[in-house]
């Protein structure tokens, strides 16, 4: 095979390779949106904790392909300035509306309270707070112990079930996400206005206890109150006497013999009596 034929075959192979590469490149560009334009969106400049109020140094603008930007992302820093943070935002994450409180809602704990709900604080200790395991983000039942009704007997009642803990002391939800635990004298619960009244009355009329729940267990049950008398064992049945009772049977006296019959016979002037 001469040199010219080898050069021709090589050139033909090179042309086929270039054509195939160009075709594959166009297909990849079409799939990846090669014509997608870059847009500027607001991202976190550092880790932002719950309850913070955003300022200019907390966020920055970054360029992303338009197809990779999630819906609702902000394009201007002025749109998020002075907004409260209700979910933690990591450095480089998109600042999205569902992570921020409503406009003019402020920051801190008030911005985390949904509409129609209330934040109520109760005083606790190490025992009431389940040795400090009750932390922001956990859910608890509220038990109240005291004198109820017309009697003077103590009883324990489950007042509220599946209540969200929104703060422990001054620590909000970001503490539990960071894996930190702490004991505090006050725990703040997220309840409805009606439950807020029940919780306040229970904490004033008796002693309250928090019962920690599994976060996946959201079922509510109707639990009857437990009275103090139910803790004591019932009265014992009297023991049977092992002493044998001997019954005295009186022997009956023999019957008295019947009275004899007497027959009187009169024969003329003669009278005879005969007994049988």
Helices and strands, in N-to-C order?
Answer: HEEEEEHEHEEEE
Q: From the alpha-carbon coordinates, what is the Rg to the nearest angstrom?
A: 48 Å
Overall morphology: elongated
Number of helices: 3
Percentage of residues assigned to helices: 10-25%
- Measured distance between first and last alpha carbons: 173 Å
Mean pLDDT: 78
Number of strands: 10
Low-pLDDT runs: 174-179
Largest sheet: 6 strands, antiparallel
The secondary-structure class comes to alpha+beta
Which descriptors would you attach to this protein?
10 strands, 276 residues, alpha+beta, 6-stranded antiparallel beta sheet, Type Iii Antifreeze Protein Isoform Hplc 12, elongated
Compile the SSE list and pairings.
Elements: H1 3-31, E1 38-44, E2 59-65, E3 118-123, E4 139-147, E5 154-168, H2 174-177, E6 186-191, H3 193-205, E7 207-212, E8 226-227, E9 262-267, E10 270-275
Antiparallel strand pairs: 1-2, 3-6, 4-5, 4-7, 5-6, 5-8, 9-10
Q: What can you see in these coordinates?
A:
- The protein is of the alpha+beta class and 276 residues long.
- Among the domains are: 38-110, Antifreeze-like/N-acetylneuraminic acid synthase C-terminal domain (Type Iii Antifreeze Protein Isoform Hplc 12); 116-231, no CATH class.
- The protein is built from 3 helices and 10 strands, in the order αβββββαβαββββ.
- The protein has helices spanning 3-31, 174-177, 193-205, and strands at residues 38-44, 59-65, 118-123, 139-147, 154-168, 186-191, 207-212, 226-227, 262-267, 270-275.
- Strands 3, 4, 5, 6, 7 and 8 form a 6-stranded antiparallel β-sheet that branches.
- Strand 4 (139-147) and strand 5 (154-168) form a beta hairpin.
């Amino acid at each position: 095979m001469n040199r010219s034929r080898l050069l021709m075959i090589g050139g033909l192979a090179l042309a086929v390779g270039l054509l195939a590469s160009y075709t594959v490149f166009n297909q990849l560009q079409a799939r990846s949106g090669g014509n997608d334009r870059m847009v500027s969106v607001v991202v976190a400049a550092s880790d932002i904790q719950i309850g913070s109020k955003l300022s200019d140094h907390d966020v920055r603008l970054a360029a992303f392909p338009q197809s990779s930007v999630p819906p609702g992302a902000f394009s201007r820093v002025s749109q998020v300035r002075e907004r409260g943070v209700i979910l933690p935002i990591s450095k480089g994450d998109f600042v999205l509306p569902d992570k921020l409180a409503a406009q003019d809602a402020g920051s801190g704990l008030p911005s985390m309270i949904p509409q129609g709900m209330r934040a109520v604080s109760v005083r606790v200790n190490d025992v009431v707070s389940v040795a400090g395991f009750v932390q922001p983000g956990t859910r608890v039942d509220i038990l109240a112990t005291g004198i109820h009704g017309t009697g003077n007997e103590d009883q324990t009642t489950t007042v509220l079930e599946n209540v969200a803990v929104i703060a422990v002391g001054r620590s909000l939800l970001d503490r539990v996400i960071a894996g930190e635990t702490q004991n505090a004298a006050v725990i703040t619960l997220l309840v409805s206005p009606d439950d807020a009244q029940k919780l306040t009355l229970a904490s004033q009329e008796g002693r309250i206890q928090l019962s920690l729940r599994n976060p996946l267990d959201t079922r509510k049950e109707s639990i009857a109150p437990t009275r103090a008398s139910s803790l004591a064992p019932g009265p014992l049945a009297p023991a049977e006497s092992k002493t044998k009772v001997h019954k005295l049977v009186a022997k009956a006296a023999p019957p008295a013999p019947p009275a004899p019959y007497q027959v009187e016979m009169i024969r003329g002037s003669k009278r005879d009596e005969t007994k049988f």
